[in-house]
Amino acid sequence: MPPRGQVPPRRPEPTQVIRRDGRPQQNRPPQNTPPQNQAWSQAPAQPNRNEWAPTQQPQQFRGTPPPQQRRQAPPPPPRRTPPNQPPPRPQQARPQPPKPRRRRNWGRRIGITALVLLLAFVGAIFYVDNSLNRIDALPDYAGRVADTPGTNWLIVGSDSRDGLTPEQEQELATGGDTGPKRTDTIMLVHVPKSGKTTMVSIPRDSYVPIPGEGSNKINAAFAWGGAPLLVQTVEQATGLRIDHYAEIGFSGFAGIVDAVGGVNVCLQSPIDDPLAGINLPAGCQDLAGKDALGFVRTRATAMADLDRMNNQRQFMSALLSKATSPTTFLNPFRLWSLVTDAAKSLQVDKSDHIWNLASLAWALRGGMTTTTVPVGGFDYVDGAGDVLLWDKARASAFFDALANDQQIPADLITVG
Fold it and tell me: From residue 325, how far is each of 165, 238, 246, 306, 334 by CA, in Å?
């Protein structure tokens, strides 16, 4: 501190330096001021404004600039709920309008259903057709009868026991094995181009010429040569060309009757035949398979074989009427059982099919003419036994009418 009465020396003002950003910078004077007598003290009294400025010259930046950072806006403050007010309800989704209902294409559905049913029906037909037992029944021999108008079927009921167990043979009263296969039923069915169908019974004891065997009972031809020899014998005896053949045995016949639910027949008198296994009262009644088989086989009546042929035609007509009735066709289970049982039970010619059998059943469904060959009498022949003789003149006119596809004259029809 200076002595009292002296004015203190004036402090030098700080030198102002202009910074690069343009703002003044106050700098303090140096603490250690060099003495006045030093050489460098002769520097200018005024400070250089650039004394404190950097001496480096600005140069262009050649590096990669750092990425600019964007300033993110601060998150909005939470929404405050005023006091004494319920919190806002969550917004419910707006109900969507109902979608328009798609119109059902009933025509297309019906068409698809009909196509499926048709394919199933066709498949069932071919399945049943393949189930038929086919044999070479229609022979091709020299001098065979020429083709005749209309359609002729030969239907044979044999005593074949194929497929039957001993218990079934006892139940059906078949009598066990009796040697070569024989026939108790021979029917000739003529289906004309127009008009009624004719069913003709040929007695099994008919005495006729058998090709290569001489004359004998007609059922001997079946025992000796089977279906081919029987067909040839019938063609030469009648003058009619056989177009189709069908044969059924004991078990097959009973199965078909059971498949349709039994057949109703009317008896004028009771029949008691232990050999056929039946004891039937008079009157109308439904016969199941076992009783039906005994009914068409029995000869325990006044006219023996003639009554049996009448019973066979009566029962065959009733069976076919039942098989083609609405009660059978409208019941798919009964119809399927009937068709499959018939296909497995029948033996047909190799050229026959299920639709041929259906055509036959339709032709025999009712309104047909049933008769037998005109009979001339009975006789006994050595080597053949008791035989039945045809009335040659009447039988010739009888079969000529069928060969010409005409109805049989009323005076030649035998009413059974």
Answer: 32, 33, 22, 29, 11
Contact by Cβ (8 Å): 369, 199: yes
Work out the burial of residue 71: count CB atoms within 10 Å of its CB; fewer than 13 is exposed, 13-18 middle, 19 or more buried: exposed
pLDDT tens digit sequence for 22-61: 565 555 555 555 555 444 444 455 555 555 555 556 666 5
Contacts with 115 (C-beta within 8 Å, 6 or more apart), sequence order: none
Q: Find residue 214's DSSP bridge partners.
A: 210
Contact 368, 317 (CB under 8 A): yes
Distance in angstroms (rounded) separating the CA atoms of residues 172 and 164: 10
Question: What's the Rg (C-alpha) of the chain?
Answer: 60
Cβ–Cβ under 8 Å, residues 396 and 352: no
Degrees to nearest 5, angle at CA 231 with 316 and 234:
80
CATH pick for 135-260+312-412 out of 3.30.300.10, 3.40.630.190, 1.10.274.10, 3.40.50.300: 3.40.630.190
Q: What are the residues facing 210 on neighbouring strands?
A: 214
Hey, is 272 helix, strand or coil?
strand
**Percent of the chain that is helix, strand, coil (3-state, to 5):** 35, 20, 45
H-helix or E-strand spanning residue 16:
strand 15-18
Q: Tens digits of per-residue pLDDT, 277-334?
A: 889 999 999 999 889 988 988 888 878 778 888 888 888 888 888 888 888 878 888 8
One-letter amino acid for residue 108 of the chain: R
Kindly state the tokens that stand for 13: 């003002």
CA–CA distance, 292 with 370 (Å, rounded to integer): 19
Over residues 228-277, the pLDDT tens digits come to 999 999 999 999 999 999 998 877 888 888 888 899 999 888 999 988 88
Give the orientation angle of helix 250-259 with respect to helix 305-323, to 10 degrees: 40
- What is the reported pTM? 0.68
